[in-house]
Fold:
Amino acid sequence: MSSLWRALLTVGGLLLIWQLIVTLGELPPYLLPDPWAVMIRLWRDSGLLLSHAGVTALEIGLGMLLGTLLGSLSALTLSYSQRARRWLLPVLIASQAIPVFAIAPLLVLWLGYGLASKIAMATLIIYFPVTANFYDGLRHTPRGWLDLARVMLPEPRRWAVLRHIAIPAALPALASGLRVAAAIAPIGAVLGEWVGSSAGLGYLMLHANSRMQIDLMFAALLVLAALAVGLYFTVDAGLKRLLPWHPTNPETSETDSLS
Amino acid sequence: MILPTLSTSLKGAMSLPLAISLRAARLVYSGLALFDGLDLELAGGSFTCLLGPSGIGKSSLLRLLAGLTSPGISGQLLGGDGQSLTGRVAYMAQQDLLLPWLNVLDNVTLGNRLRGERVDQQRALDLLMRVGLTDAASARPDALSGGMRQRAALARTLMEDRPVVLMDEPFSGLDALTRLRLQALAAELLAGRTVLLVTHGPLEALRLGEHILIMNGRPATLSVLPDLPGIPPRDPGDPAVQDAYRAILRLLGAV
Structure:
């Protein structure tokens, strides 16, 4: 409850600073509209904003799904096969050296102005953190557990060890990859929309900007921020529920110290 | 009418006492030989404690017996029947090594699942009852105390039903009272198996060991302590135990 109050207080404080800048700086509405004007815009154009937000949310959601799937599979392949490690790891690291911003126009050229190019952008931007975190977790299975499994198994069974020990042990690492992914996936989708699109919050912002509808642009920005924050907290809460044994919150780590 | 009891007792007889022989064990750590040409014989069905100061290479020796190779360590390891020990050893470490995402029952049956066998729930529940964890069967390890966790690890070790049990300071992380109780429990439940327990606590060795080996020196050698009277678990206050305790301290150069 106190965290909710703190959040409300922070938002209120930011709105106050915003209003003060507008009032004291005597800024014209086409440079910086006051919060109240943006709120009115939010209310009046809520239908328009929601329909564009739906498009962006779909792009982010599908990008998250695809990026998580591809990233997890890549991490598993990397940890399972030494050959894959030798060939894929340099490619993976090199791929990270090319900024996604640079290939956004290419993706739009290849995949068109529709959803596909934006989903590809979101997928690409989260692929690396998901893969890198999960792979890191898979590499660092505590040695004691692996020793135990080796004594239990008459002959080595790598898949069984991976399935029963290494993968569950790496899930907290995958979870931190997914938290990063949730924070940056919206960037990928909006970036794709800026480069070329006919729908989505990024499109709406560009469109409003070129018509000097700065209040609409700010309204779209607020909706986007709400979307991104909502996504992050949903993913975070979901992961905490799925991995209750992992001490991320202080209450559980306290009982953990008993051992 | 007697048949069911017979079959359950036969189940225990599956693991006939198995002697172990280790020859020419050698451990080189960063150019320094911790031990070299070490021989170790364990009689089938005996409870042996291996006592020695920290860093002498006890744990490495135990890992070698468990078939856990690491760089720099080598030796010829055979069972008393001349066959390899692979698949006939259970291992219990100082950490309980319980998997935090599994409940106690699933932790106990981990070996079944790793080997792709049918999970013998009933046997696991029986073992949990014997270590006094019936009520904790569906609890996650993070909800248990240190002593309960180590008891769960003991149940998991017994679940493997191997003729040889190797233990690496399994009780050293526990408070004194819990440790005494767990020692008694382990002595009772491991009877009939070939057990090697590594410890740096002389009293633990004297309480539990039918035979006591002392590992000392550099490169380390093994010496056999005269067998004590009485059946383990022995009373720590027993005069014979106290005399042997003093003798060990003198041997290790502590007094």
Observations:
- Chain A touches chain B at residues 144-145, 147-155, 157, 160-161, 164-165, 168-169, 171, 243-247, 252, 255-256, 258-259 (CB under 8 Å).
- The domain at 50-191+224-243 of chain A is CATH 1.10.3720.10 (MetI-like fold).
- The longest helix of chain A spans residues 158-195.
